[in-house]
Design goal:
- The chain is of the alpha/beta class.
- About 30% of the residues lie in helices and about 25% in strands.
- The protein has 15 helices and 24 strands.
- It has an eleven-stranded mixed sheet with strand order 9-8-7-10-6-11-12-13-14-15-16, sandwiched between helices.
- Helix 2 runs parallel beside helix 4, helix 12 crosses helix 13 and helix 14 packs across helix 15.
Length: about 475
Amino acid sequence: MYQVAIQEVFGVTNIDVNAVVFDSRKVSKNDVFIAQKGVTVDGHLYIDKAIESGASAIVCEDFPKVKKEGITYVKVADANTALAILAANFYDNPSQKLPLVGVTGTNGKTTIASLLYQLFKKAGYKVGLLSTVKILVDEDEFNATHTTPDSITINSYLDKMIDAGVDYCFMEVSSHGIHQKRTEGLTFAGGIFTNLSHDHLDYHETFAEYRNVKKSFFDALPKSAFALTNIDDKNGWFMLQNTKAKKYSYATKTIADYKAKILEKQFSGSLLKINDTEVWTKLIGGFNAYNLLAIYATAELLGLEKLAILTIVSQLENVSGRFEYVISDENVTAIVDYAHTPDALKNVLETINDIRTGNEILITVVGCGGDRDKAKRPKMANIASQLSNQAIFTSDNPRTENPQTIIDEMEEGVAAENYKKTISILDRKQAIKTACKFSKNGDIILIAGKGHENYQEVNGVRTHFDDLEEVVNCFNQLKNN
């Protein structure tokens, strides 16, 4: 059992509590309320409200000026850490009862975690998944709201997994989740580092801070765990500098414990050599070679037999919104991908350009999210315009920002020689429709940025919007005209 570092206590501690809660609106009789100092809201302002709703104990970083009789107040240095440890202890530390593997990095987290779920299911195990796309307790599916959920949600689902007899759980670990201590109190059997590139600098402010937050996940791994890193990434070994876990590496360009080479590639799949064995996979691209290497290595480190792993790798399906494609009756290939960072967009476009003959037109529809890292906007526009024959800039969850302002900031990154290859269409549906109308037999459309997301968020309101649905509708309309 993990322990909370307590600074001061007011009131009695031998009390029974019903639940650990950090949202004052969800407090019930005899709950413990954790007052967190959040990015936008300070939970200390809601202590009185929590008590009125029935809280019998308060955990906080600062005692209120007036403490109420009959209420237990516990002062801690960091309420986020306290919440994570209390949540783990409340659910009897479920992460200690099954192998939990965390995947962190800028790109590839969802694909690796989801494919590991697929692989271990096909190997005959009961498996859990905590990802951006969904949460799975073996066969039971739940909606995901964050890449890394809050500590109570994580532990409650892990507890469900224990009750369901789950053998392994794979979890995306975001930099936000690490920084906000949501993974404290969890016992990991392994950690995977994918890569590090430009993202989330609206939150972390500097790349060094973003990198160091990721590294702290590996610093915290126990000796009994494994730490698997991509050493083709310049930050690969840095991540493992101070880890106590057993170190393993994977790469496609340098010597590593796990090595892959792409032998053939086409839109229907790739032929890879993983270490000394060839395997055909439905997944394509250099980025997926890394993802599959990480999956293969993890499965082997968790005790699966090599040949069995490779057999299942050949059966794995693409993850929703990750290089998902549809071909029209007119032989136009439309690819939907979650690529929402400069590095991810570059990887997807280079993969397409590696496979295409060059006789087709490649049209890229791309936008950048509002209220997020602004520095990547011109970079993404530059990549799209440079690596495509036609780039259409459009909206992508503008949130509270003016979508035209976002597009204007994207356009600043376009080199003069590429201006003529770009157009801007504010409405995303219209942008996709325009790409379909522009395309002819054999052409390729990439719709980047949203992937699996089935909504568009404007001024705090989410309306249904699915890129794959939209492009299929466009193809059907063009066929019927």
